Batch of 2 targets.
Target 1
Amino acid sequence: MPLVSTDENPLIPYQHAMPKDALPEIVVPDAVPMDERIWVPQTDSVSFRPLCLNVSQGYWMNMLRVRKSGVLSRHRHPNAVHGLVIKGRWHYLEHDWVAEEGSYVFEPPGETHTLVVPEDVDEMITYFQVNGVMYYVDPDGNHLGYEDVFTKIDMCRKHYEEVGLGADYTDQFIR
Ligand SMILES: [Fe+2]
């Protein structure tokens, strides 16, 4: 018995409403934006672009951009991270592999690492799903600070207000 019936037109859309409690979808046509104002700066060399700021499950999807020999501070992940390298190349001080353009990376819960962009790469952009928190530490693992979806939202609101897009520009990414 076929999994999909062959005696009906496959181009007929689903005939019923979506569940009334379902959240609206997000469609971002310029996931890697040309408008510089959309990049939210974290340091001189690191910025991010929000795609989905998920407050109901505590994760965020974003493009991370690191320019010329940038470093993303040492941090621990209690939850899994998924990454897809869109542009450039990077590595962690703690591992001997290199994430090249086009690479997919899974980072298991328990990872502590320091992301470095090599000197010959002007710019790297990676699509990351970060779950839970980024827990910033010193080399011995002592706590220095953290980021979660709520600190990300605060950063977005502050930045978008400052650049004239308005703090509520952030709202389209929140679910
Ligand atoms: Fe990380």
Note: The first helix runs from residue 149 to 162.
Target 2
Amino acid sequence: MRLAFLGTGAAFSPERYNGAVVVDGRLLLDGGAPLLPHMHRCGIDPGAIEAVFLTHFHGDHTLGLPPFVLHRVFVDPRPITFVGPEGLAARMESLWAVSWGHDWELAMRDRFKVTYQEAKPLGTAGGYKYEAIKLDHGTSGSSGYRIKVGGKILAYSGDTEATAPLDQLVDGADVAIVEATGPGDVFSHMSWEAAKDLRARHPKTRFMFNHLYSGTVEGAVSDLEVVEV
Ligand SMILES: [Zn+2]
Ligand SMILES: [Zn+2]
């Protein structure tokens, strides 16, 4: 499994780009980073992404997507599947319309070969089987994913508090990409102390922490880091 971290920062991190991860050049997990230039720097073909998994609709997880979508409209029109929480299609279509105005409807919409799939408890997207688990994050919550990648289980949290569903998400996973926003009291997110405790409860899982606001913590990944697992 090849994991490319296009961004590893929290929403208003002064040091890191907003979050996005590419798995094996085929799956995109959230889309906050400057996707096209960062894919380019990591040797990833943006036309080869088959599925995008969105945990929730906050801007730091979605606002890198409009240029990526335009690439799929004008440069490489291969079909793509978006997986995300309830309301996915309407939220995404309004983001494309806000980004590109009337031109979206007039010249782009018909050329975008997208399938929107609201996350199911068990589903398949881009040929990958996944399990979705609802996590606690603000008023909307967040959809965490357990994705089967080449015989391994990859758990991906997006934003979450350190509550029981997060333990369920990472339980038995080979690799877990989990947020760890900062030390102390971080409202609606996981603290570094809770991240350390989570890792101690699941010693067989390899943890990679992202969504950092400032500084770093043991197990954290960096912007543009590529990890082979
Ligand atoms: Zn976030
Ligand atoms: Zn959020």
Note: The chain is about 25% helix and 30% strand.
